Amino acid sequence: MEVFLCKQVEALTTSLAVQEGELRRVREDRDVAQTEKEVMERERNTLVHVATEQALEVRGLRERLMQMEGQPMGEAEGWGRVLEGDALWAELEAARQREDWLANKAALVHAGILRGGGS
């Protein structure tokens, strides 16, 4: 009977050690997942902040362009305004492309297709 009980204790001790190892791995996985979640949340917050800043920049550029388009211009002044307007359109287009890129990246991160992190 004593041998049987010793074998039972040994089996239970082994089973307990295995379960403790599995529990430790699950806790480590949970900690890793929590860290990844926090990183993704920081990345999302950064992307939202940058997108907001860029949206405000685009709004300001559009307002500036509208003001420029509404002003009457003389012939000499007109050429300078056209060049300035072209540069403004280029700035607007670059800001729009950055905004689109960030929105796409945020969507991919949110969908789990792309990991959060560097650009």
* Major sheet attributes: none
Number of strands: 0
**Structural class from helices and strands?**
mainly alpha
Order of helices and strands: HH
- Contiguous helical run count: 2
Distance between the termini: 67 Å
Mean pLDDT: 79
Q: Could you name the ranges where pLDDT drops below 50 across 5 or more consecutive residues? A: 73-82
**Fraction in beta strands:** under 5%
Radius of gyration: 30 Å
User: What is the global morphology?
Assistant: rod-shaped
The quaternary organization reads as single chain
* Helix fraction bin: over 70%
Question: Care to describe what's here?
Answer:
By secondary structure, this protein is an all-alpha fold. 89% of the residues lie in helices and 0% in strands. The chain is built from 2 helices and no strands. The chain is rod-shaped and about 105 Å long. The protein starts with a helix and ends in an 8-residue tail after the last helix. Mean pLDDT is 79; it is low at 73-82.
